[in-house]
Amino acid sequence: MKDVILIIGANGQLGSVLTKRLQEKYGVANVVASDITEAKTINGLFEVIDATDAGRIEYVVTKYKITQIYHLAAILSAKGEANPLKTWEINMKTLLNVLEVSRLNNIQKVFYPSSIAVFGGGAPRINTPNNACLDPSTVYGISKVDGENWAQYYFLKYGLDVRSIRYPGIIGYQSLPGGGTTDYAVDIFHKAVLNETFSCFLNDETTLPMMYMDDAIRATIELMDAPLEQIKIRTSYNIAGVSFSPKEIAAEILKRFPDFKIEYKPDFREDIAKNWPKTIDDSNASKDWGWKAKYNLSDITDTMLNALAAYYK
Ligand code: AKB
C-alpha cells in the first residue's frame, strides 16, 4: 500500500518545513497539509482542519486514504501559560482525536512531538536522561507528559505505531516559532541582520538545549523510517543538538556582526527556562535508531545569518 501522509499543524515553524521535506520524499500528490487556518507557505494539497473536531480529521483521512499522520498542532510553553485550561483542552483534545481516528481507520504510523518541557525541577539539568523524573512547571509540559503516556497506551493496548521525539528549541530561517520559551534563539538572528538591538527575555547565562531545523527534520524522518523492532521507547525519545546561553549565541553573532547589540530583560519565560534541562542525554535515540546531530552553534550562526541576510536584502 502506498504511503499517504497527513500533517496537522502544517503552517507552524516545524510543520511548514517538514511538509516540504515530506513532499520531496513521498511526492506532492501523497502529502496533505492541514492547519486551523488556510495555507500560508504550503504549495500542494491542503485542507483546513480544526483538530479539536475528530469528525473533520476523519473526513480528511477517509477522503485521501491517509496512512500516516504527523500531529504537530499544539499551544507552546510560554503562550500556554496565558490560558492554562484552554491550552490543556486544545493540546489534549487534538491528540486524543488523532489517536482515536488513527485507531479506528487503521493508520499505520503516527508522529507525536514531545518536548524538553516535560522535564522540571526534579530532573538533573545536565545530561538529562530519557527516563528522568517528569515534573513539568508549564501546562504545555504537563500536556506533553500526558501525551507521551497516551501515545504509549495506544501502542500497548491497540498496537497503534505512535512514535515521538522530545524536541529542544528549533532554530531555522524558513519559518518563525510562536509562543515558545526557546523562540529568542530565532528572533536574535532576525534582529542581528536587521541591525536592531535585541532585547532578550532570558538571562545571559540561561543555557537551553537547541537544534538546527535540518537536524530536527532529519531526526523526525529517521525515527519514522526506523524498523518497528528498533523503536524501544514508546513514550518519547530525548534528542540532543547543541546547548548554549544567550551570551554564547550573542558572542557567535558578534564575531560576524561586530555592531550587534543585545540587552537583557528577563520575564516569566526565564522562570520556565530555569526549570528545563541545560543539556540532554540522547544515548537511547543513538543506540535504537542511530540518531546523531550534525550542526553546532557556529554552523547554525553561519547558516542563519547568511540565509536571513539574503532574505532581507
Ligand atoms: C517551547 O519553547 O515551548 C518549545 C519547546 C521547547 O517545546 N520550543
Map the helices and strands:
Blueprint: E1 5-8, H1 13-26, E2 31-35, E3 45-48, H2 54-64, E4 68-71, H3 77-80, H4 84-104, E5 109-115, H5 139-158, E6 162-167, E7 169-171, H6 184-193, E8 198-200, E9 208-212, H7 213-225, E10 237-238, E11 242-244, H8 246-256, E12 262-264, H9 268-273, H10 283-289, H11 297-312
Parallel strand pairs: 1-2, 1-4, 2-3, 4-5, 5-6, 6-10, 7-9, 8-12
Antiparallel strand pairs: 9-11
Helix pairs in contact: 2-4, 4-5, 6-8, 6-11, 8-11
The chain binds 2-amino-3-ketobutyric acid (AKB).
Domain NAD-dependent epimerase/dehydratase: 5-240
Protein name: NAD-dependent epimerase/dehydratase family protein
Family: Belongs to the NAD(P)-dependent epimerase/dehydratase family.
Question: How would you characterize the overall build of this protein?
Answer:
With 313 residues, the chain is α/β, with parallel strands linked by helices. The chain is built from 11 helices and 12 strands. The chain has helices spanning 13-26, 54-64, 77-80, 84-104, 139-158, 184-193, 213-225, 246-256, 268-273, 283-289, 297-312, and strands spanning 5-8, 31-35, 45-48, 68-71, 109-115, 162-167, 169-171, 198-200, 208-212, 237-238, 242-244, 262-264. β1 (5-8), α1 (13-26) and β2 form a beta-alpha-beta unit. It is globular and about 55 Å long. It starts with a strand and ends with a helix. Bound molecules: 2-amino-3-ketobutyric acid (AKB). 2-amino-3-ketobutyric acid binds next to loops.
Q: What value does the average pLDDT take? A: 97
Please give the share of residues in helix: 40-55%
Number of separate strands: 12
Taken as a percent bin, the fraction of beta residues is 15-25%
First-residue to last-residue Cα separation: 46 Å
Going across the biggest sheet, name each strand in turn: 3-2-1-4-5-6-10
In terms of per-residue confidence, which ranges show pLDDT below 50 for 5 or more consecutive residues? none
What best-fitting shape do the alpha-carbon axes yield? globular
Major sheet description: 7 strands, parallel
